Amino acid sequence: MFGRSKRAKIVTPTSNPGAYRFGNQRLIELRTVTKAYETAAGPFVALKHIDLEVDRGEFVAVVGKSGSGKSTLINMITGIDRPSSGEVLIGDTAVHTLSEGQMAVWRGRHVGVIFQFFQLLPTLTVLENVMLPMDFCNTYPARERPERAMALLEEVDMVDHADKLPSATSGGQQQRVAIARALANDPAMIVADEPTGNLDSRTAEAVFSLFGRLVDEGKTVLMVTHDDDLAHRVSRTVTIADGLIVSDTGHGSATMPQPVAEQMAV
Amino acid sequence: MLRDLRDQKARTLLVVLSIAVGVFAVGMIAGTRQILTHQLNTSYQSINPAHALLGVNGFDSDLLAAVQRMPEVESATARFSLRTRASLGPGRWLDFTIFALPDWENIPINIVRSESGPWPPPRDAVVVERTSLPMLKSAIGDTLSLELPDGRLRDVSVVGTAHDINLPPARFTNQGYGYATFDTLERWGFPKQYTSLSITVADPQGRNDQEYIQSVADLVKDKVESSGRVVTFTYVPEPGKHPADEVLAPVFLLLGVLGLLSLFLSAFLVINTIAAIMAQQVRQIGVMKTIGARFGQLVTLYLGMVLVFGLLALLIAIPAGLAGAYGFTSFLATFLNFDVVYEGIPVPAVGLQVLVGLLIPMIAALLPIRNGARVTIREAISSYGLGKGRFGQGSFDRLLVNSQRVLPWLSRPLMISLRNTFRRKGRLALTMVTLTLGGAIFVAVLSVRASLYQTVDDAVRNNNFHIIIGIDRDVRTEALQEAALQTPGVIAAESWGRASARRQRPDAPADSTADNSLPSLPSRNGQADSQVSTQPGMPGGESDEIRINAPPAGSKMVNPQMVAGRWLLPEDENALVVNTNFMDAEKDVRLGDTITLKINDKESDWVIVGVMEGVLDQATAYANYDYFSRLMGRTGRANGLRVLTNSEDPAVHVRVAAALEQKFKEDGYTVTQLSTRAENLEGTEYQFGILVNLLMVMTLLMALVGGLGLMGTMSINVIERTREIGVMRAIGAATRSIMQIITVEGILIGLISWIQATILAYPLSRLLSDQVGLAFTDAPLSFAFSVQGIVIWLAIVTIVAALASYLPARNASRLTVREVLAYE
Ligand SMILES: Nc1ncnc2c1ncn2[C@@H]1O[C@H](COP(=O)(O)OP(=O)(O)OP(=O)(O)O)[C@@H](O)[C@H]1O
Ligand SMILES: [Mg+2]
Fold first, then answer.
1. Weakest mean pLDDT among B134-138, B339-343, B372-376
2. Which end of chain A has fewer CB atoms surrounding its CB within 10 Å, N or C?
3. CATH number for the domain that contains residue A231
4. Confidence of residue A257 (pLDDT cuts 50, 70, 90)
């Protein structure tokens, strides 16, 4: 799915041997990405010449103060926003070159996006919400979709609530459904912007360990968080301040040799 | 606040347009009514219309002078009229009436104005009434071939046009009119004499009093009759009213109702849009309340905003309404044969626009504004996440959620469309009302159209023949029929007895006659109350003209729809079948009654044995040919034929008519009348056509309002769901999917409204068809429901719905996810 052929045409691949269990394939590569917003007071530079590489199977936490540019950075990766200059290469796709429509389709297939607020569609049941990405991207045969959605709900322990409308479930439950939905098209990476920001600590813990399990299953997870506790339990922490990466714990060094989920088991 | 308006350009435009459409309709209709009524009256008064008109069998200038000298008469004038036929090509004729005037320079009453060419026309030339020129298919300078009543042909040149507002447009009556001098007519062998007399009354208070005018007309009638002449009719029109005034009243009533309806729908759109704006303002309201704004202040603030909307709408609606009013008046004027001049702004109509344009939106907005301003600070600042519209609470919502089980093949995107449709039920209801009414009115108008044509068909079925041909004298019936049947294409030919009769009403009791005596108007010679006139519909005296048709027994050419009693039997003698028009005119007559008719000054008694449906007909009685012709002393003789051909094609009828004329001429007859069914119906169909077009204009307006309403609803829905759209984008919805979800919702609304419109359309069609019939033909139309209309509306509503949701859908699909998620 994420071969290197297309990407090779755009940039020259550089081999970078890593030490990760799931190989050393690079999944995400940001090259001198700059993002400037037009504001009333003139252009505001939210990201300054950012270079970032993430390999498959990494569990990356993005931390920093409010307004430092975390969401902006994440949005570059999901294609929700575009860089003013620089390149965003995910797998074999140069994301910054896609049109809005192509971007949506690409995102649907390859990225699972999770927001802080529970972005479930209120007129669809929990089960229908999980099936929706498969409908949009036409990824699984229509007959298999309910079954697959049920399996995903099983994974996040929401099967009992499958036929409820989101409004009849709690915040933590909705966030779990959102994760199930993010997994619907079996994307290689999950990108979450403060997924636990609106949850109490126990629910947050549960959601976090769910992410850990996904990493164990081979997914790449990028997560913005304010929670220092959580941030220290991932394989790699990227800290941003004023649009610059000021520290990066993980890249090129293995700080967390054992499976994440084991470490986080409560 | 003004900044708010600017920021929400699309919605502002939508509210403003919504108001403007309704206000435009009101302005156009009120303006048309005002301009038309005023200008028609002015034009009509400017010709000094006659107060009374008398038909007289030939009189001279001496009698005219004598009438002019009568103290009750202000002025009098006379006309001679000659019915000719103008040739339009082989077998095609247009009835063409020529008028001659006593004094061309100084016409005191019913002034005719020369518009081009010499006046009076020179010898052997005619000036034609302006609306007749296109009907004659000729231009000024052309030569016209006229056939005189005795069959002689005379060429005249067309030298100019004149305008006579008293004459209906030639298209209406399928008849041409022109003017020639007695110089010309004397060369054709007609002596200088007159056939009609017009008067105005002298009494200034009496000029507006129909009864008084009638009394003067009766005095004039006595004067004419005492000189030994026969008065064939007396006609006192409603004083000061153009003849078409009667027809205009129901037209304006109908337009007024439609105008009100579109205003009503406009108000719905305002409610919807303001409600949406208020929903968007929730945060702001919360902030304002936090810093101390009170409920009353907020309401005033937002009402002020609505006032600005109203003012903006007036900026569009007033000029558009004015242009519409003048345009529409000019359009109507061509059917009334008068000219519209620009006379400035119709102040009352514009005043009405200002009033409704400012007041209606304020009233409509009151409720949504009140609800919006009531929001508590806590509610205002705590609204986040998706799901405005509280979906899932009602039992209907639960039904929709469960619909997944019933409709498992429905994909989730389609599910979203379906459920979103019913998310905002109040808004949906208002949109539905708009679209449903629009659709029902559309179908009703098409049904009226179908009914009009059905009525024509029924009229044709009642009198089932294709050609009428008349000659100048009585000949043996068989000889005529033989000649006709020898003509190729003719399959039947019948001679009908024809006459015009007046019913001699039984005398009313003496005291009631006294009640009918004239009001004692001041009159200079005290003679005004010496005569008692007969009023139509009142007992005593004579009825209006009744047509007698006497088809041969077993005629193939009558196909009566009996309402009561039976059709004529061959052995019937003085039996009559009358039509419903007769029964309406003579209300005291019942089936089985014996009535007295005066035919050619001879009275005879008849028994009414049946009543048939009269469609587009005048009061008519049918008798048996044999008895009738014996009574008239014309046994076995006729001066005309009704002919049935082997085809229903009007073109064939024209060809057969030409062949018949040729054949009759060869046989030595002089053809005085020749017309085909299509020609006879042309005028009626033309009038109906105008009516339908008029209604269609209003219907399009309704469709426009409906479409605007749907577009409004859809764009409000989309704005409200922007975040949801962003989420769908984020999880992989392609542009097409987003567009589809929104468009399907719009089309769904359209389809549901279509079903409702179909149900509502039937009773509405019935009502409209009956009312139009009563207004224009004095009887309900033969009802036909337009299934075609339903199908057309389905197509229209689908297309309108697709278009109305396309724009919001496109805007939505253009939003980037970041914009959407930042949207607050
Ligand atoms: N659309 C925009 N226009 C202008 N400035 C923006 C826009 N979006 C973000 N910014 C600015 O860019 C900077 C980075 O914003 P970003 O949302 O990435 O911060 P963040 O680290 O996610 O903060 P938080 O923790 O509050 O979510 C901030 O100063 C913000 O004000
Ligand atoms: Mg952020």
1. B372-376
2. C
3. 3.40.50.300
4. very low
Confidence grade of residue A24 (pLDDT, cut at 50, 70, 90): low
Cα B521 from Cα A102, distance rounded (Å): 91
Task: Note whether ipTM > 0.90 here.
Answer: no
If you take atom 24 of ligand 1, which residue's CA is the nearest one? Answer: A66
Structure tokens at B600: 């050619």
Select the residue of B384, B401, B728 nearest A125 (Cβ to Cβ).
B401
A199 lies in which domain range?
56-79+100-264
Residue A37 lies in a domain: no
For B422, name the nearest residue in chain A, comparing CA atoms only.
A123
Coil vs helix vs strand at A213: helix
User: Does B413 contact chain A (CB < 8 Å)?
Assistant: yes
Best mutation target, A72, A96, A123, to test chain B (most B CBs within 10 A) = A123
- Check pLDDT > 70 for residue A138: yes
Please state, in angstroms and as integers, the Cα–Cα distance from residue A48 to each residue in A31, A35, A180, A239, B149, following that order.
11, 7, 34, 14, 103
Segments making up each domain of chain B, as ranges: 1-49+240-383, 52-235, 389-461+679-824, 467-647
The reported pLDDT for the residue numbered B539 is: 44
Q: Cβ A107–B728 below 8 Å, yes or no? A: no
Determine what percent of chain A is predicted with pLDDT higher than 90. Answer: 15
Q: What is the pLDDT of residue B321?
A: 92
Q: Tell me the C-alpha distance between B31 and B606, whole Å.
A: 53
**Residue B805: which of B759, B728, B747 has the closest Cα?**
B747
CA of A73, closest CA in chain B: separation in Å? 12
CA distance B212 to B189: 40
Structure confidence by residue, pLDDT tens digits, B535-565: 444 445 677 788 888 888 888 888 888 888 9
Residue A5 counted as domain residue: no
Q: How far A259 CA sits from the closest chain B CA (Å)?
A: 29
Q: Residue B94: enclosing H or E segment and its boundaries?
A: strand B92-100
Nearest Cα to Cα of residue B635 among B624, B644, B627: B627
Give kind and range of the element (H or E) at residue B69. helix B61-69
Q: What is the pLDDT of residues B219-244, one digit of tens each?
A: 998 888 888 888 877 888 888 888 77
| Chain B: closest CA distance from residue A165 (Å) | 7
Residues of B in contact with A121 (CB under 8 A): 386, 416, 724, 727-728
Q: Using an 8 Å Cβ cutoff, are A32 and A86 in contact? A: yes
Write down the H helix ranges in A98-194.
100-110, 126-137, 145-155, 171-182
Measured from CB, residues less than 6 Å from any atom of ligand 1 are A 37, 39, 44, 46, 64, 66-72; B 822
- Please state the domain count of chain A: 1
Q: Which of residues 157-176 of A touch B (CB under 8 A)?
A: 163, 165-168
Give the position, in ligand 1's atom list, of the atom nearest the Cα of A226: 25
Residues from chain A that touch B420, judged by Cβ atoms under 8 A, are 123
Residue A262 binned pLDDT confidence (cut-offs 50, 70, 90): very low
Strands A220-224 and A59-64: parallel
Residues linked to residue B277 through DSSP beta bridges, in sequence order: none
Q: How confident is the model at residue B390 (pLDDT cuts 50, 70, 90)?
A: low
Helices (H) then strands (E): counts for chain A: 9, 10
Model pLDDT for residues A79-129, shown as the tens digit of each residue: 888 899 999 988 888 888 888 778 888 888 889 988 877 678 888 889 999
Q: Whose CA is nearest to atom 29 of ligand 1?
A: A67
In a domain, A88, yes or no: no
Contacting residues of A for B732, CB less than 8 Å apart? 104-105, 107-109, 133, 136-137, 185
- Give the tokens for residue B619: 């009061």
Q: Using the beta-carbon criterion (under 8 Å), do B392 and A136 form an inter-chain contact?
A: no
Strand partners, B158: B126
Average pLDDT over residues B124-134: 92
